[in-house]
Specification:
metal-binding; nine-stranded mixed β-sheet; 5'-nucleotidase activity; alpha/beta; 18 strands; about 10% strand
Length: about 475
């Protein structure tokens, strides 16, 4: 009890200190040490990297995809009663194609209980454990390298920001079929629900000076720049005219549209074709990638041969960790920057007093349990069981602060999500938007924080100050001596 009161007092005193230690949402975070002084060439994806869209676009995509199911695939007209739910899902979730279940999985392939949904309703922990014989998802049924469900895999991971309306539509259709007792084949439903991001229109672009300012800053400092996007020329041209201005092409040394990423990074067979301003494909062979010209398709190997831009002097930004970044860092040694728009919202939540209070007390409770579990007498065990229940409640509260269904994009309770693990592996740096570059000069070095390994943490002062205090253990030692 004395220890409990100490920890409670300690945690309460700590909250004001932590509350003053806010995280700036415009920070660039480093997974790997990288100096901008070494970067000579900057590359960009287009969607959700240079161009950002309003949430109304997801409503449009959802409605179009829902109507395609009804009109082209003869799904029930009753689906029209469903509308897009903006905050239902988060990116990075897994979908079990055969069981029609949407869930969050952590970096160790464990399902986070309480985040498994059939349709629009949660599945009980007991049922989940029965279906999967526990909480672990074996490697052989996980998605392939790019998050797709293929080659007999039953899981699909949704990594694209445009997949938010797709996940929501899958959930709504599943919900309708269950509500009306309609027998259906989940695999057919998964294949039918293909949300196409080419429905996006420029009227949903969120205009800002920041993209223009970043590109101008790089250009004025003599940096070479290129654009590789899967979007078509007419769409990119209208968007960049709106965001940057009619002279946007002057900023880029190479512009490639309809690149067909991630195949662009792996398939050596597709040659470049030049595109006229009217979208006409020219037949002549490409010997040089010229500034001011637009090229379609091609492949990275030909791109490297024609430009000579190789290795760690190239930094490429994209929002899709698999399609944009994985191959570049694993196969070609480029430096990579992930654009995670959700980051800004999550950091703002982390800066709230509610979140700080919840996490501080949760950490203290966990430390209490770790140290006091050695007491096996009935009275102590009763208190410990009470703490365990309180800890479970606190964990659920922490999840709900971000999203009541699936929690944070980055955490499954204390573990990193499957999304987080891939982010740390494939991105040297990550940020909410490229505008964050304006806060740094082009000689800045990004240093990753040396977070302790588990066996190192006792020797780190900042770790001992947040709950790793061995008071019960030390008192036991003193007693035994």
């Amino acid at each position: 009890l004395v220890s409990y009161l100490f920890y409670f007092s300690f945690s309460s005193d700590l909250i004001p200190v932590i509350s003053n230690n806010f995280v700036n949402p415009d920070t660039i975070f480093a997974n790997n040490e990288m100096s901008l002084q070494d970067i000579e060439i900057y590359g960009f994806d287009y969607d959700y990297t240079l161009a950002f869209y309003s949430s109304n676009l997801h409503t449009l995509i959802f409605n179009i995809a829902r109507d395609i199911l009804i009109q082209e695939h003869r799904y029930p007209e009753g689906l029209k009663e469903y509308e897009y739910i903006p905050d239902f899902v988060v990116r990075g979730l897994h979908y079990d194609v055969q069981k029609a279940l949407l869930m969050k999985i952590d970096a160790f392939h464990y399902i986070q209980l309480g985040t498994v949904y059939r349709g629009l309703h949660p599945v009980s922990d007991k049922e989940v454990i029965a279906m999967y014989e526990g909480c672990h998802v074996p490697l052989e049924i996980m998605s392939d390298f790019y998050g797709k469900s293929s080659h007999g895999h039953t899981m699909k991971q949704f990594m694209d920001i445009f997949s938010l309306p797709e996940m929501t539509l899958l959930s709504c259709v599943n919900d309708y079929f269950m509500k009306h007792n309609i027998d259906y084949e989940p695999v057919h439903l998964y294949k039918d629900v293909k949300v196409r991001s080419d429905h996006k229109t420029n009227k949903y672009i969120c205009y800002g000076e920041q993209t223009h300012a970043v590109l101008r800053k790089l250009s004025e400092n003599g940096k070479k720049m290129f654009l590789i996007t899967n979007s078509p020329l007419d769409f990119v041209d209208r968007g960049m005219n709106y965001i940057v201005g009619k002279d946007w092409r002057d900023l880029f040394d190479v512009v490639i549209v309809q690149a067909d990423k991630p195949s662009f990074f792996n398939d050596r067979r597709k040659p470049f074709r030049r595109v006229t301003d009217k979208g006409v494909l020219l037949w002549d062979r490409i010997h040089h990638l010229e500034k001011g010209q637009i090229y379609k398709q091609g492949n990275l190997y030909e791109f490297l041969r024609l430009t000579g831009w190789r290795g760690s002097k190239v930094l490429y930004f994209g929002d899709h960790i698999y399609s944009d970044l994985a191959d570049l860092t694993l196969k070609h040694g480029w430096r990579t920057g992930a654009i995670i728009p959700e980051l800004r919202k999550e950091i703002k939540i982390m800066n709230t007093e509610e979140y700080v209070h919840t996490m501080t007390w949760l950490q203290s409770l966990t430390s209490l349990l770790e140290h006091m579990q050695v007491h096996r007498d009935p009275a102590s065990q009763a208190v410990i069981q009470q703490w365990i229940r309180e800890r479970e409640d606190m964990r659920s509260q922490a999840k709900d602060i971000f999203n009541s269904q699936f929690g944070s994009l980055f955490r499954t309770y204390h573990n990193p999500t499957y999304f987080s693990r891939r982010l740390s592996r494939f991105a040297d740096i990550y940020m909410a938007s490229i505008s964050c570059l304006l806060n740094y000069d082009l000689k800045h070095t990004f240093y990753p924080r040396r977070t302790p390994l588990q066996h190192e943490s006792p020797s780190w002062p900042e770790q001992t100050s947040t709950g790793a205090m061995n008071i019960p253990f030390q008192s036991q030692q003193a007693g035994s001596e």
